[in-house]
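lol so apparently i was supposed to do this last week
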Amino acid sequence: MTKEIYLTGDRPTGKLHIGHYVGSLKNRVVMQNSGDYDPFVMIADTQAFTDNARDPKKIRDSLTEVALDYLAVGLDPKKTTIFVQSQIKGLFELTSYYMNLVTVARLQRNPTVKAEIQQKSFGESIPAGFFTYPVSQAADITIFRAKKVPVGDDQEPMIEQTRELVRSFNNAYHTDILVEPEGVFPEKGLGRIPGIDGDAKMSKSLGNAIYLSDDADTVAAKVKQMYTDPKHVAVDDPGHVEGNVVFTYLDIFDPDTKQVADLKAQYTHGGLGDMKLKKYLIEVLESELKPIRERRIAFAQDIPAILQMLKDGSDHANEIAEATMKEIRQAIGVNYFAGLK
Ligand code: TRP
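anyway here it is w/ tryptophan bound
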């Protein structure tokens, strides 16, 4: 029986942080180890270029960093095809064909792209590649005939647009070779974890992230800066749990839910100091992050092996992609020279 393919990816624009970990990486490892899937994980460098075209060094450097993050959390190249988007030439070709099956008006309605354009303050200078990246993302998903796409909630519109493109393509070329994918979304509360400053989103650009590669002292220092309750000044003051990042993180990372409930009760009542609470969170985080960090350091000893792993993964991914492209070219009718030498 052929296993269901899942595909997902990350833009290599920096190292991955604990938001990526709880929102996505952890679940990928579970899906990988379930044995129920044929997993593909892509480092989306082509997509990273859509808003970083003038900074190829950042993308190149991040390629190995992201690969190390993957291996550190337990993605295993024996079970998961880990590959690099730009190396799959069929993706550029398929993107070109898709581009004619979507309207500018439809692209303008994509809420995630809309929000990102605002955030990045492109003004009137939106790169065309950025504006159309949902089309290229549809190619990523469909060239591998992925059924499941585990992504963050913000990627829902991309999946929807992919499904539309699949229908348009199959309809335009009277075929059924393309598969409509389904998104797999994070459990409630894990899709978006706040930054250490209390901002709703942990992100590199906001400088409020804890990275999987941070050493123990850095993690401790970041927890000590963490936003708690500004009105909780003296230890005996009653404190607020809601919006208090330390508690948000304990809810996510501490398996001992009874302990967390007790701490919340104590904090709300008064008598639990921020320092003591933060020391506890540091321990909780360390028990999860230490093994990841140690594996990351071990893998980082041999960068050529990491590049070889990415090349092997890309070679394998290319074979799968080419098989689909053959059918695509045939369906469209651009296989003019089939059978000729
Ligand atoms: N847009 C995704 C992100 O920013 C990355 C990505 C690119 C992706 N291609 C993909 C995710 C295909 C899932 C499937 O996180």
